[in-house]
Structure to design on (434 residues):
């Protein structure tokens, strides 16, 4: 019944998703994408609620007690220079596959409604469309925070704080995977790094670069030394910690003919565990301070809490795997890998049992100018069908399977502790050059 409904609904939702691919929007700017999604929900007669500025939620209720299964989708694009669909203003492009997530989960949600399958089941299914997963365009996001429109720069962090997930018992999601899609068609149980975002601002002294360079304090030289120090530290990063430290110089000076009086360096400090993130962060701060001190610059370091490492629930992973195996042989399923990227699903995984299945069906480079859908069957149809089977079983027999998974789950921290920890990472520190 639900599969027949999916077959009818998927073509329209694939068309919608590919339209969103062609009209990308950065986080908390997903106004067009949101409007298109609302039009679909309205046409199906499904009420919806605003969440996290540009996000939204909707719920289907069987009318009988039971677990609440959350379906996570993401809205936003990421800046990608040179992509054929990139927004000309901010280079937004859908090079991480979020548009396809929306297609899978929205198709599934509509099929549950149209098929009437919930009449035979229990509990609820909640669609959670989350904005702002890509951690970028931070000046804009901080302006929203300053205006009181947001508390946090991530959609899921904002939803956690607002209590949007409080009534949800476990969550299902999918994402374009970073593995060889000719070798694997699904990735399950994968871990991801967490990270802290850092902005280092070096304050020097302007002087004429030709006539009086000795009268200045070159803030660009301080950046160069700091970057060199970080690179020399790389041999101290342990392989098992999966450390990544990467940066861009967002301000290199004001004009060629003047000694740079201010420069800025933005970076992520990533690792597999919170302990490794904090240890690496201390090393990076030493290098930043050393570069500033050597040149005589003042230094401001602004830390912004990023995402926690992702740890998917083992019991829910095995449960979903059984249904995936109905659509592909086990040798096409990668399991237990670790990715060096990060996502705010990691924050949810601290407090709720979740899975985020890696799906195939894309070509090009993740976050690259050639990323696109190459196989609609793998990217949309197959995930929608195995998630449909998953939901039916989770909500059968009074939700016995879902309750068992939830009872076995051990949260890493409470929501209160999580928010306190998240807030503690946000700080600004100034070091004087002398």
């Amino acid at each position: 019944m639900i599969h027949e409904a999916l077959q009818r609904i998927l073509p329209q939702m694939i068309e919608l998703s590919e339209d969103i691919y062609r009209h990308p929007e950065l986080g908390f700017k997903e106004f067009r994408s949101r409007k298109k999604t609302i039009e679909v929900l309205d046409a199906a007669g499904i009420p919806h609620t605003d969440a996290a500025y540009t996000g939204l939620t909707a719920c289907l209720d069987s009318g009988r007690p039971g677990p609440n299964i959350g379906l996570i989708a993401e809205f936003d694009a990421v800046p990608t220079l040179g992509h054929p669909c990139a927004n000309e203003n901010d280079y937004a492009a859908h090079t991480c596959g979020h548009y396809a997530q929306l297609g899978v989960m929205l198709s599934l949600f509509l099929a549950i409604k149209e098929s009437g399958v919930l009449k035979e089941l229990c509990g609820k299914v909640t669609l959670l469309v989350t904005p702002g997963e890509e951690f970028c365009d931070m000046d804009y996001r901080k302006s929203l925070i300053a205006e009181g429109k947001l508390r946090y720069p991530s959609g899921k962090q904002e939803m956690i704080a607002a209590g949007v997930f409080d009534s949800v018992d476990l969550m299902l999601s999918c994402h374009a995977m970073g593995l060889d899609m000719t070798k694997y068609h699904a990735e399950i149980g994968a871990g991801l790094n967490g990270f802290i975002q850092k902005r280092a601002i070096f304050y020097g002294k302007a002087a004429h670069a030709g006539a009086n360079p000795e009268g200045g304090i070159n803030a660009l030289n301080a950046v160069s030394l700091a970057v060199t120090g970080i690179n020399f530290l790389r041999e101290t990063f342990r392989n098992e910690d999966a450390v990544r430290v990467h940066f861009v110089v967002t301000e290199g000076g004001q004009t060629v003919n003047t000694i740079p009086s201010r420069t800025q360096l933005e970076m992520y400090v990533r690792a597999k565990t919170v302990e490794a993130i904090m240890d690496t962060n201390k090393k990076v701060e030493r290098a930043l301070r050393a570069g500033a001190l050597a040149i005589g610059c003042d230094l401001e370091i602004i830390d912004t809490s990023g995402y926690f490492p992702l740890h998917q629930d083992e019991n829910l992973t095995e449960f979903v795997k059984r249904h995936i195996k109905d659509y592909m042989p086990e040798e096409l399923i990668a399991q237990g890998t670790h990715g060096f990227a990060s996502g705010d699903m990691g924050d949810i995984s601290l407090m709720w049992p979740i899975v985020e299945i890696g799906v195939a069906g894309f070509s090009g480079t993740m976050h690259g100018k050639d990323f696109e859908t190459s196989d609609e069957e793998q990217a949309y149809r197959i995930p929608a069908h195995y998630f449909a089977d998953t939901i039916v079983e989770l909500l059968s027999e009074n939700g016995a399977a879902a309750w068992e998974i939830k009872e076995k789950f051990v949260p890493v921290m409470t929501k209160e502790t999580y928010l306190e920890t998240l807030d503690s990472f946000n700080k600004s520190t100034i070091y004087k050059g002398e």
Notes: The chain has two domains: 2-193+309-413, 194-307. The mean pLDDT is 97. The chain has twelve helices and 19 strands.
